[in-house]
Amino acid sequence: MPARSHSLHTSRREPGRGGDDHGWARGRKFSSEDLQLMVLALLRDGASHGYELIKALGERSQGYYTPSPGMIYPTLTWLEEAGYATAQSEGSRKRYALTAAGLDHLASHEARVALLLAKLAHVGRKMAWIRRAMEAGEPELDAEGADRQTGWTPEYVAAHMALREALLLRGGAAPAEQRRIAAILARATRAIEAPGTDEAAP
């Protein structure tokens, strides 16, 4: 059966759209298209049963995102009908595997898939950080000075929190000031996306 077409979300949040600080729309964590791509990415690592896929998503996010069977199985059915996955019956269960068409579909959305998996891993690390903070525990650092649970250094966490607070305090700034802040953030983003440099090109 030919694959159905979908209009996937852009890799960055569209201006003016509400969302949390992970870039997800308020009221939901992932769209149906997001879930389809993440399931295909997991199937790229090997054939799986639906329950194994649910467990894998939960483990990657440290429990933050664990789709219900009512979400995962319709997704798998859609992927099978679209020709992106095959299903092999094993008793009362089915084992799903990626097809060549599914691999091509993943490749055509590779940037989006990478961002989704990065968000999933990020929120998992954040959940671990929050749990420890609520327990008033101190991070255990590795040889490079990073938290063994999250991989974050104390400097990274402090800078991230300082930026969020600075933006919060300037949420009601005048348009000219907002544009000045936006230009600063754009330069910082370019620098972050260019590893090995401290400053981004103007």
TrEMBL record:
Give the matching InterPro entries: Tscrpt_reg_PadR_N, WH-like_DNA-bd_sf, WH_DNA-bd_sf
Q: Where are the annotated segments for Disordered? A: 1-25
The record's section on Gene3D superfamilies has: Winged helix-like DNA-binding domain superfamily/Winged helix DNA-binding domain (1.10.10.10)
Sequence ranges of Basic residues compositional bias? 1-10
Q: Which residues form the Transcription regulator PadR N-terminal domain?
A: 39-107
Source taxon at top rank: Bacteria
Bias kind Basic and acidic residues: ranges: 11-24
The record's section on PANTHER family has: TRANSCRIPTIONAL REGULATOR YQJI
Name of the molecule in the record? PadR family transcriptional regulator
* Protein species of origin: Bordetella genomosp. 5
The lineage, from the top, is: Bacteria, Pseudomonadati, Pseudomonadota, Betaproteobacteria, Burkholderiales
